[in-house]
Amino acid sequence: MNTSLKESLTTFGLIWNHKLITIAGIKLGLGNMLVALFLLLFASRLSNLMSKLINKRLIMRFVEDRASQTTYQTFAFYGCLALFVTLSLTIAGIPLTVFTVVGGALAIGVGFGSQNIVNNFISGVILLIEQPIKIGDVVEVENITGTVISIGTRSTKIKNADQKVFIVPNSFFLEKGVVNWNYETTIIRTIVEFGVAYGSAVRQVENICLDIMLNHEGIEQTPLPIVQFTNFADSNLTFQLIFFCNIDKVPSLNQVRSDVRFLMDDRFREMNISMAFPQREMHLRFDKPIGVKVLS
Q1: Torsion over CA of 90, 95, 98 and 99, rounded to 10 degrees?
Q2: What pLDDT is recorded for position 223?
Q3: Which residue range is the domain that position 221 belongs to?
Q4: CA separation for the pair 128, 69 (Å, rounded)
Q5: What is the distance of C-alpha 275 from the center of its chain?
Q6: Burial 250-268 (b: 16+ CB within 10 A, else e)
Q7: 159 and 193 housed in the same domain
């Protein structure tokens, strides 16, 4: 039994110490590679737990802004990951000098096929540091409008009004034109356009619209909402309602505009004010009487 066990241990030892690869004169055995792989996987999970603990115990006590908390937690994660990876490689017996060779190979790979990945990674770091956009901001980029729900090192997730989530590369926010509706202020101007029939009492239209905007809880009273009589159009008298909303306090600007239109329609019906629609008048002119024939 002892002989069999000894042979099994000897065989296991040979397999464990079997050299798989040599890099820069350093032989890496099967056992070393397995330990390194296991520790690296463990390092990622442990770094995630440590970054959450640091955020809860330290960052949240001194930083009130949620976006800044996320930024510091991300940096804490990568700092812990670098520390655990270094410890993992040291414990596994893999010297850090290996990376002088591996780093050169990675540099060549980056030069030929990884520019976009590196570009997005660096852009993600810049976004986390400068914070031109933050989690919770309403942004518009590449015909996508929605709320930022997460900012990663490679991409940013945006959720639109249809609850669809778009994954946008970070480089877009530095290279493309971006509208951040929350940048420096959450008070946003919006406009509702409409037309009423010719002959309508325009001052009455103005008073009704002002009353609706001044009594709508989603419309800010500073600056004051205004009604503008914009034009004498072909088929109607055109108006614009200009008002401001705090996008942190309303479901969406589209919802507020819809509410205003519903209220306008109800009040205009009560006051017999007609909403205009295209109309055409035709005048027939004849120099001679029209000939009429009756066929039987």
Answers
A1: 50
A2: 87
A3: 187-270
A4: 10
A5: 38
A6: beebeebbebbeebbeebb
A7: no
Number of independent structural domains in the chain? 3
Residues 48-102 have pLDDT tens digits of: 888 888 888 888 887 777 767 777 777 788 888 888 777 777 766 666 665 555 5
- Look at residues 219, 267, 222 and name the one whose alpha carbon lies nearest to residue 241: 219
pLDDT digits (tens, 9 = 90+) for 143-181: 888 888 888 878 899 998 788 999 999 888 888 878 888
Query: Do residues 202 and 194 make contact, with C-beta atoms less than 8 angstroms apart?
Result: no
3-state secondary structure of 166: strand
291 falls within a domain: no
Task: Please list the alpha-helical segments (H only) found in 114-201.
Answer: 115-130, 172-175
**For the purposes of burial, counting CB atoms within 10 Å of the CB of 205, is it exposed (0-12), middle (13-18) or buried (19 or more)?**
buried
102 phi/psi in degrees, rounded to 5: -60, -40
Read off the pTM. 0.56
Tell me the percentage of the chain whose pLDDT exceeds 70.
72
Say whether pLDDT at 271 is over 60. yes
In the block, residue with structure tokens 């109309």: 279
CA separation for the pair 74, 10 (Å, rounded): 46
